[in-house]
Design goal:
The complex is a heterodimer of chains A (200) and B (487).
Chain A (H helix, E strand, L loop, with lengths): L4 H10 L3 H24 L4 H24 L6 H18 L10 H9 L7 H23 L4 H12 L4 H8 L3 H26 L1
Chain B lengths: L3 H4 L2 H9 L5 H12 L1 H11 L2 H11 L21 H4 L5 H7 L10 E3 L2 E9 L3 E8 L4 E8 L1 H4 L2 H15 L9 E5 L6 E5 L3 E3 H8 L4 H20 L12 E4 L5 E3 L5 H8 L15 H4 L6 H17 L9 H10 L14 H10 L11 H16 L17 H21 L3 H8 L2 H14 L2 H7 L3 H19 L13
Antiparallel strand pairs in B: 1-2, 2-3, 3-4, 4-6, 5-6, 7-8, 8-9
Classes of the chains: A mainly alpha (200), B alpha+beta (487).
Chain lengths: 200, 487
Amino acid sequence: MPQPPETRETLIRRLSNAADVEAWDAFVEIYEPLLFRLARAKGFQPADAEDFVQEVLSAVVLAVGRWVEADRRSSFRAWLFRIAQNLAIDFLTRPKHRRLGSGDSQIARLLEELPARSTDSSELFLKEYRRELFRWGAEQVRDQVSEKQWMAFWLTSVEERPISEVAEQLGVSVGSVYIARCRIAKRIRKVIREYEAQTK
Amino acid sequence: MNTRSAECNDDNLLVLLDGDEDSDLFRRAASHVDSCAECQRRLTELSVDADHWAMLREMLRPVEGDRPESGLLCRYRSAEHVPWRRSVVDEATVKELLAAPSHPEMLGRLGRYEIERIIGTGGMGIVLKGFDSELNRPVAIKLLAPHLARVGASRQRFAREARAAAAVVHEHVVPIHNVESDHANPFLVMQFIPGESLQARVDREGPLSVAEILRIGMQAASGLAAAHAQGLVHRDVKPANILLENGVERAYLTDFGLARASDDASLTYTGVVAGTPHYMSPEQADGQPLDHRSDLFSLGSVLYFMGTGHPPFRADRPMAVLKRTCHDPHRPVWEYNAEIPDVLSDIIDRLLGKKPSSRFATAVELQDALATALSDVQQGKTGRRRWKSPRHRYSWPVVAGFIAVIVISAVIAVMFIPPFGVGSRNATLPTATEAVGDAPILSQSPLVELQSVDPSPALQSQAELDSLSRMLDSLETTPFPESQYQE
């Protein structure tokens, strides 16, 4: 169920610290596609998967209020990722008819729980989280390089096609295919590491 | 080649990995790697380790929804993200929403309207120039943006608000002819106003003359008054929503109440404000309940914009603009523009009051104040105090002196000016006369209700906000000062 706009306005007001708003944006960057993929992996239809995305993010928004109220000194980013992980796993594990009610007591419980309880859902979560992180990183880097450079990386690294063949197909030298794919691989690792460093 | 051994070193390869592709160093190293298999191997080794290469392959391997042939990854994003990520609306996109045109030179057809071209795009929709084939007249059509048309709540809101807006009939409000809410993409049909927006005018010509500012402000205020009388709050008064008709000195307000329909998506849970936040009132920026006085603040920002060429609160990011709107004082207009008389500068200061109660009580009151100022300007009766310190610093004796001077001149005026002088002054001001005529109707309308709605919640929260803002200032060094916002 989409949250009422009032909730969103409240979130904006609560996150009046610009760095926290950035943290939230970065969080949504990974979490929207991640939650969608998780729901699809659990057999949800696309429309239901969209609802699932909205539902979990709305629950996280509600939880943000608690984080602000609690006089915590942990970073917002680290907290956000922990609560979202717990919420997502909880939502996935729960039978469909059990909906998060007003949220408060449940969120309180989730806040106290440690992340990554060993269930099938949490394994799936970690696997898909990692996949989304790599894909996000790849998307970031793709925006910074030329189409040819990207294809040189993609065709040789992901599709494992021979370098000389790709060079010929793209009409560039073998050396530039090597350079493009190595530069891109290194940059993807860099953006992923930076992202992870900020969420720990 | 015998240069190989010298060229084969890790430093050169690191330039290839991290260096500037346009540098000579890079080009030299690149041409070497073309022919040196050893360096190709070493380059791969230096970039990322074998595990990471395997991981990249595993994680990026095509899954459902990917388009491997183009190296595109499918990363689902909700509809709320699409508008500000891909905000370019081109003819091809619009054509998809339209039926085939009856004439080849047209873009397409929407019901009985032939669509000629795109006039503009905004946060919530696309504005098209069209032609009503039944009534034989040009029209402007506002089409609800596709991403919003999919959201049931937005559709309903659009229809509801558009109908309410259609009920506002006023010479300074763009008339709405028709609302089509059953269509796949709901749209509303408005009178086509040949001309440009106030935003475009100021962008093109810079700050306007004092008389123009007062005239446009007065007309916009009268349009607002008509809407407020219907219990409608505009919520998005800004220069782009004020149209100036070509050839005649007439301004129109547009997009009444529609801002609300777009709230569902423009203010997303990501905390991103899609539109311009520059003209939002503090209570709006803070997500507080708002009434018609929010529009007065926004109109104050528009007057400020006309006088200076920019809105009162500027910052790099939307969030920062909102924060400044809530907490910072604006710089007086006359500090930017020496032409602005005190009377206008004071009106703007009053409109930009953080507390709704410190602004004008109604749009009618504002309209009257602007009309008086305009007549004063036209008679050359304006004063400036550019060289003086800001008003708040005036001491009481100075103010008392001022009042004494005004009272004395008023007495002299009453003694010497014959009664018909008042009539001749108004004759130069047709809109002012009409405005005065409108006033009684307005005062007995729902506007009274609007005012009588207990303003204390807003007031309380405003007072609270002010005290919190002070606390915030003193807590600047604590890690999470926003926790102070909690009640």
